[in-house]
């Protein structure tokens, strides 16, 4: 499942510089600062969620079966548009891209059906996608009327005030409905569970240039969440990292595998990630055949991120 979020931002460069300063890479700093002035001016981030699969270079997607059935949940119940669909028989998979707006300006979801595979283990680490709706109760009624699965009825979140509900798509992926006024980005959260919240916050700040937008401890329910991203929580998609007290390991299953962020230079990004202690799992460079430049890394919890060259990505959309 891919979601793509494009956001003009200039955080990455400054965070990379702070990494370089920290390790005293003065000589590199000179060179990076020059380069980063170019990167800062037009760095754009595309935010995608992908799946675990054989380590192919081609970005893969969270698998799901019965795309038609999933499309119905996403389109008729959650109000997404089917933006494009592609069948790759030679690779034995079909993709469908769904979201609330075009891929070059919105976070969209890419569903993938791998031929003949109709069951995946989502694991315990993946939490949910967040969908902002103006009326949670009304949306839940619509979902019920269409045969969708509601796993938590509408009501204030435990320990808070925001009205939420939870539904599941036919493949068991959880969606949290959050009651919110009109927003340019209804597809507003990716929730992952982490074993050390401070470690996760520092990594996403320093290696990816994200901003800590909000941190909330919920001692009554023994968890803490941190919202991180490149724009305000109510107007853009954010990462929601959840730490459950005392839980340091999660099963990542065989479905969810990566988040991708767009950048203007995958080579410099990979360098910055290495300098900030990230583990590069795919060296920067073009994908065979389509030539889109990517690099990939693991965060301290083992959640994977792919960085995609912004210009190559837009070419893919043409
Ligand atoms: C802020 C909003 O987007 C949330 O997702 S908070 C929802 C809340 N989260 C948790 O409880 C996290 C800890 C939990 N043990 C987990 O690992 O998911 C939630 O799910 N509340 C349930 C409710 O009924 O309010
Ligand atoms: Zn959430």
TrEMBL record:
Cofactor note (record): Binds 1 zinc ion per subunit. In the homodimer, two zinc ions are bound between subunits.
GO cellular component, one term: cytoplasm
GO molecular function terms noted in the UniProt entry: lactoylglutathione lyase activity; metal ion binding
Pathway: Secondary metabolite metabolism; methylglyoxal degradation; (R)-lactate from methylglyoxal: step 1/2
EC code(s) of this entry: 4.4.1.5
InterPro entries in UniProt: Glyas_Bleomycin-R_OHBP_Dase, Glyas_Fos-R_dOase_dom, Glyoxalase_1, Glyoxalase_1_CS, VOC_core
Keyword Metal-binding: yes
Keywords: Lyase, Metal-binding, Repeat, Zinc
A single BP term in Gene Ontology: methylglyoxal catabolic process to D-lactate via S-lactoyl-glutathione
PROSITE patterns: GLYOXALASE_I_1, VOC
Cofactor: Zn(2+)
Functional summary from the UniProt entry: Catalyzes the conversion of hemimercaptal, formed from methylglyoxal and glutathione, to S-lactoylglutathione.
Protein name: lactoylglutathione lyase
Lineage of source species: Eukaryota, Viridiplantae, Streptophyta, Embryophyta, Tracheophyta
């Amino acid at each position: 499942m891919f979601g793509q979020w494009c956001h003009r931002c200039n955080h990455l460069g400054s965070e990379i510089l702070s990494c370089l300063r920290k390790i005293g890479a003065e000589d590199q700093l000179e060179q990076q600062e020059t380069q980063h002035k170019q990167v800062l001016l037009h760095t754009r981030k595309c935010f995608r969620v992908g799946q675990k699969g054989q380590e192919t270079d081609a970005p893969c997607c969270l698998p799901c079966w019965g795309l038609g059935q999933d499309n119905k949940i996403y389109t008729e119940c959650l109000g997404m548009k089917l933006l494009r669909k592609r069948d790759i028989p030679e690779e034995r998979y079909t993709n469908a891209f769904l979201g609330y707006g075009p891929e070059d300006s919105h976070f969209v979801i890419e569903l993938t059906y791998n031929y003949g595979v109709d069951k995946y283990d989502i694991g315990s680490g993946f939490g949910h996608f967040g969908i902002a709706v103006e009326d949670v109760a009304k949306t839940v009624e619509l979902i019920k009327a269409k045969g969708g699965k509601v796993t938590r009825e509408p009501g204030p979140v435990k320990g808070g005030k925001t009205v939420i509900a939870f539904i599941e798509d036919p493949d068991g992926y959880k969606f949290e409905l959050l009651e919110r006024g009109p927003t340019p980005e209804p597809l507003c959260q990716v929730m992952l569970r982490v074993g050390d919240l401070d470690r996760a916050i520092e990594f996403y700040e320093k290696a990816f240039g994200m901003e800590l937008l909000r941190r909330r401890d919920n001692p009554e329910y023994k968890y803490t969440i941190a919202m991180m991203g490149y724009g305000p929580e109510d107007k853009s998609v954010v990462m929601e990292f959840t730490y459950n007290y005392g839980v340091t390991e999660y099963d990542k299953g065989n479905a969810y595998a990566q988040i991708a962020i767009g950048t203007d230079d995958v080579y410099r990004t990979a360098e910055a990630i290495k300098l900030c202690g990230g583990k590069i799992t795919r060296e920067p460079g073009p994908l065979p055949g389509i030539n889109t430049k990517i690099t990939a890394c693991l965060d301290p919890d083992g959640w994977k991120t792919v960085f995609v060259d912004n210009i190559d990505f837009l070419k893919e959309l043409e």
